[in-house]
Write a structure and sequence with these properties.
It contains 10 helices and 6 strands, in the order αααβααβααβαβββαα. It is of the alpha/beta class. A 6-stranded mixed beta sheet has the order 3-2-1-4-5-6, sandwiched between helices. A hairpin with a 6-residue loop joins β5 and β6. It is globular, with a radius of gyration of 20 Å. The protein starts with a helix and ends with a helix. The N terminus is likely disordered.
Length: 241
């Protein structure tokens, strides 16, 4: 086999077990380097390409959003409207590249080994981004995606805002990872906090635990998946009228 790992293995005259490990690590690295988002690096906010690489590698996401539908769940129309709001002067071709980034992320949801647990503030569903037609389509899309076996979408109703820890914590994503095929090691979980002026990646065990506990607490005031789906379709109907 002609590969970088093989060449290193030959050069260092390592044993068979070490050789298999080195080749596996080399192949994992090569796979990462070929990932699709590298071609869109110029269109992303600084360091967001790092988030996408984590998202692609993750086994589970726990997402809490106070504002805006998560990118993995956005329709192209919703994403386009979001870009125009943030960058009204941006040329159309550049806008479409950003829409494409969002679309290219979403096949990840089709992986049955990838679990997504989303809790949204009800305010996210009622914020009329892009107009009533765009929001109606976005909410129907959420209702459809929520029926996937590996996706959970729940809503924390506005009536519970006085007791909802999520109002204090703010939006975040907790990413957890599977063991690496070559070594069996597991990457520690990461909390991603997206900000308007910059993003945070939190990895300390104490920080991750605080966010994990917060997500559990937020989930306690959220509606069930079935009730959430009915609410999304109801609000979609209101927007469509």
């Amino acid at each position: 086999m002609n590969c970088a790992g093989c060449a290193l293995a030959d050069a260092y005259r390592i044993n068979d077990e070490e050789r298999r490990l080195l080749i596996s690590l080399s192949q994992e690295l090569a796979s990462v380097q070929k990932n699709w988002w590298r071609a869109f690096a110029d269109e992303m906010n600084p360091r967001f390409d790092h988030y996408i690489s984590l998202e692609e590698a993750a086994q589970r996401l726990a997402v809490w959003r106070v504002t805006v539908i998560p990118g993995l769940l956005q329709t192209p129309e919703y994403r386009r409207a979001m870009v125009w709001v943030e960058h009204p002067e941006m040329p159309s071709d550049q806008v479409e590249k950003r829409v494409e980034i969002s679309v290219r992320r979403q096949p990840r949801l089709e992986d049955p080994d990838f679990a997504v647990d989303v809790v949204l503030s009800e305010a996210v569903l009622r914020d009329c981004i892009g107009g009533r037609g765009v929001m109606a389509g976005q909410l129907r899309h959420l209702a459809d995606v929520s029926e996937m076996a590996n996706v959970s979408i729940r809503v924390a109703p506005l009536g519970t805002a006085c007791g909802n820890l999520g109002s204090i914590v703010g939006s975040f994503v907790l990413l957890e990872f599977p063991s690496l095929p070559a070594t069996g090691l597991v990457e520690p979980p990461v909390v991603f906090v997206e900000g308007y002026a910059g993003d945070l990646y939190l990895e300390r065990e104490t920080e991750v635990k605080r966010y994990r506990d917060a997500f559990t607490e937020i989930g306690r005031v959220a509606l069930s998946q079935d009730t959430t789906r009915q609410l999304m379709l109801s609000i979609a109907k209101e927007f469509g009228e």
